[in-house]
Structures are given as C-alpha cells and as structure tokens.
TrEMBL record:
InterPro entries cross-referenced by the UniProt entry: dGTP_triP_hydro_central_sf (IPR023293), dGTP_triphosphohydrolase_C (IPR027432), dGTPase (IPR006261), dGTPase-like (IPR050135), HD/PDEase_dom (IPR003607), PHydrolase_assoc_dom (IPR026875)
Name of the protein this chain belongs to: dGTPase
PANTHER family, A to Z: DEOXYGUANOSINETRIPHOSPHATE TRIPHOSPHOHYDROLASE, DEOXYNUCLEOSIDE TRIPHOSPHATE TRIPHOSPHOHYDROLASE
GO MF entries: dGTPase activity
Domain HD/PDEase span(s) in chain numbering: 56-262
GO biological process, one term: dGTP catabolic process
A Pfam family this chain is assigned to: HD_assoc
Keywords: Hydrolase
Length: 452
C-alpha cells in the first residue's frame, strides 16, 4: 500500500520548481489547461452528436468543463473523508492537501482527461489504429514490437499524456508542465500497449506511448503508483483516478441523454421517467422533486432539473463506494469502476445505459458522423505517413509538397521512423472536426481556392 503522504507532489514536467505565487501549484495546473491550445480545440471536437447548427449540444470542451465541476465536488468530499479518517497517519502538509487541494487536482485532471482524443470521437481513434493495421505489410518492419503495438492500438488516453508532456520542436521542455499529481490522476490504464488485456481495469487499454514511457515512470515513482510488472511495464492505478473516472462516467451517462432530448431523439416522457426512476432508487421519498416539477412546465427545464438531481445522487453514491472500497483502491486491488459497481446493483442505471445504446449511440446521425470521421482521418494519415517515412533523397516532389502542410513543431527530422510518425499523429489527432474536414476536402481537390 502506498502511504497517503506520498500520493501527491508539486513536481512538474520539465523540471520546473514550485513558485511562491498567489495560486497553489494545483490551481496553476487548472489555469494552464484552461489557457492551452489543446484544451481550446476541444470546443470543435465531437462528443456524441455532430454539431447540429442552432440546437446546442455538448462538445468535448463543454463536457470536460462539466466533468471538472463534478470532479471538484468529488475531490472535496473525498479529501474531507481522508483527512477526517486518517488524521493520525497524515503529515501536516498532507492534511492541508486533502482538506484544500485534492479538489483542485481532481478538477484539473477532469478538465484535461479528453485532450488526447482525436476529432470525430472514437471513430477517429479507430481510423488511426486501422490505418496501420491495413498497411501492415508496408509499415510493420519499420518499427519494433512495442512501437507497432502503440500504432495499431492508438489510444486517446495515452495520447493525452503525450499532448500534456511532450516537447514539440521549438517549444519548451515538459509540454504543458503540469504537476505529476494531476497527470497521474488521468492515467486510467497505466501500462504500455503490449500489456493491454481485457478483464483488468488497469489494462483494458493502455496509458502511455513508448515516447512517454520514461516520463510516466518518473511520474509513477514521484506519486507512489504501485508497479505491477516491469516487463512489460504495468502499474496499478493511482487512487485519484477513480474519482476522475467517476466524474466522467456520471456526466456522459446522463448528459448524453439530455442532449438527445434537446435534439428530439428521446421523448420528454422517456427521459423524465428514466431520470425519475434513478432518483427514486436513491431516495424513495420523492415528494420534494414531484412538487418542484409541478412548477416547471418547460420540457427542457424539467429535464435539466432532473438531470441535476440525478448527478447529485450519483456523486453521493460514488463517494460512498469510494469510501467503502478505499483500502482496495489504495492497494490497487479494485478491478471495477465505481459507476460499474453501482450499475450492477441498480436496474435504473442499467436501463439508462441500455436505452442510450439503442436510441442514442446507434442513431443515424451518430453513425453517419462516425463513418465520415473515420474516412477523413484515415485519408489524412495516408497523405502524410508514406511521405514522412521516405528518406529525404527518395522523396518525390509530391512527398515534399505533402510534408509542407505539416507545421514545424510536428516535424522530427532527426528522429526515428517511430518518432516521425508520432509527429504526424500529433498533428492529425489534434485537429478539430472542422479543420480535419476542411483539410481533407482541400487535399482531395473537393474544395479548391485560397483560404486563410
């Protein structure tokens, strides 16, 4: 078990020391993320639904802001629990951290939990992975086993660590220069790609590319992440990860339903009944909720009110499960997310999930954007990857023209083939939906003309 006194540090990537300023180190993390270009680009990345014009639905940025709000609440309540129940083993600075700063860590981690996700949601991830799978005969021999595993299993979570820590060409060391504590809190799958394995919560996917392996080991050592295996490298989850994951799960389970209602995909009665049943499963005395609903006649406002009550109920139950399973969380022995534990015992939450899969995630508009996004991302990679892998003396004029479209910070001329490809992936995965679509149309000759 890692000591509660060693789960946090103000050490940052890039070896930047702590500064005596008005904000704490963890508040500075939050602010750095807010002002980063990677976070700003989330405003035009698909959450579930394509941006539908006049009807507002969530994108990755608004989703992340809401997850951060839920995460702050969870962090505050969890910090209070830890400081109250383990005061005898906590150092004075640790008491201060759990009482006043854990909420800032979880809020910051939630804010940046999606920065590694490419355009077009999970279909963007699939397009990147399948590009390498489909071109295995031409490409595989250029990479070692672990590098190839990174590419054919491309993962937004691992990419998030890269986005936040990688030094791009011409830029400062340490990327966004966040604290190791915040970075550890987003590492849901702290293993390398060759170690991913279903059935293990920390290995369902993977959490860092080979380029960030050393950085992640430094993070793990600094905040006491337990090592499960050295070859391949596998760690247990950091305890704070469960809070970040719960905040994300709470939001996307509920907010996607609210968006679907606003778009007319889900009826008001269906949405109300699903939310009300979940509220009732937590507290059978629903008179106060029913009385409030009699005063609200606007359909969207009724759903917003019920959504708020549902999120509050899920926050409270997630905290209860965090407390109940705290020893297993500290030891790295819990193998189920907090929301999954709850879902297994709550038919109302199961019903929301199955309804969402049937009515929302398989809706025609969602499937169409996933198909379009897959093709756009695949073709963009096909435009750059073959050219970047050719030796300079073998590059034709069309290769050189293609590579001129790569911004200089993503070009690693002196790197290995793997590092060169990762630069292309940095560029393509960082694109917004609109930018990726516009560039695709231009290089395919669909749109011709000068735009700035």
């Amino acid at each position: 078990m890692t000591s509660l006194n060693h789960l946090f540090t103000n050490q940052r990537t890039g070896n930047h020391s702590a500064q005596a300023v008005s904000r704490t180190d963890f508040q500075r993390d939050f602010d750095r993320i807010i002002f980063s270009s990677a976070f700003r680009r989330l405003q035009n990345k698909t959450q579930v639904f394509p941006l539908p014009g006049s009807v507002f639905v969530h994108n990755r940025l608004t989703h992340s802001l809401e997850v951060s709000s839920v995460g702050r609440s969870l962090g505050s309540l969890a910090g209070e629990f830890i400081s109250d129940n383990f005061s005898s083993v906590l150092h004075e600075n640790s008491k201060q951290f759990y009482q006043h700063q854990l909420s800032n860590v979880i809020a910051a981690a939630c804010l940046c939990h999606d920065v590694g996700n490419p355009a077009f949601g999970h279909s963007g991830e699939d397009a990147i992975a399948s590009y390498f799978e489909k071109n295995e005969s031409d490409l595989k021999q250029k990479f070692n086993e672990k590098e190839w595993a990174d590419l054919i299993n491309f993962e937004g979570n691992a990419n998030g660590i890269r986005v936040l820590t990688n030094q791009q060409t011409g830029k400062d060391l340490g990327g966004t220069q966040l604290t190791f504590t915040t970075l550890a809190s987003i590492a849901k799958y702290p293993c390398e790609a060759v170690a991913k394995k279903k059935g293990f919560i920390n290995r369902k996917k993977f959490g860092f590319f080979q380029t960030e392996k050393d950085t992640f080991q430094e993070i793990a050592k600094s905040v006491g992440i337990l090592e499960e295996n050295s070859e391949p490298l596998i760690f247990k989850r950091h305890p704070f990860v469960w809070l970040v994951e719960a905040a994300d799960d709470i939001c996307y389970n509920i907010i996607d339903m609210e968006d679907a209602h606003r778009l007319g995909i889900v009826s008001t009665s269906d949405c109300e009944n699903l939310f009300f049943d979940l509220i009732k499963s937590e507290n059978p005395n629903t008179k106060r909720v029913e009385d409030k609903l009699t005063l609200i006649t606007n359909a969207n406002e009724r759903i917003s009110y019920l959504r708020a009550k549902v999120i509050n109920a899920l926050i409270n139950h997630s905290l209860h499960l965090f407390k109940t399973n705290f020893n297993d969380i500290l030891n790295g022995n819990l193998n189920e997310s907090l929301l999954d534990i709850y879902k297994n015992k709550n038919p109302s939450l199961q019903e929301i999930e199955s309804f969402s899969i049937e009515k929302i995630y398989n809706h025609k508009a969602v499937i169409e954007i996933e198909n379009a996004g897959y093709n756009v991302m695949y073709e963009l990679l096909h435009h750059f990857i073959p050219s970047i892998l050719k030796p300079k003396e073998a590059q034709k004029s069309y290769d050189k023209m293609a590579l001129k479209l790569l911004p200089k910070q993503f070009v690693y001329d002196k790197g290995t083939d793997y590092e060169k490809v990762m630069g292309v992936l940095d560029f393509v995965s960082g694109m917004t939906d609109n930018f990726a679509t516009d560039l695709y149309r231009k290089i395919k000759g669909i749109d011709i003309g000068m735009t700035m």
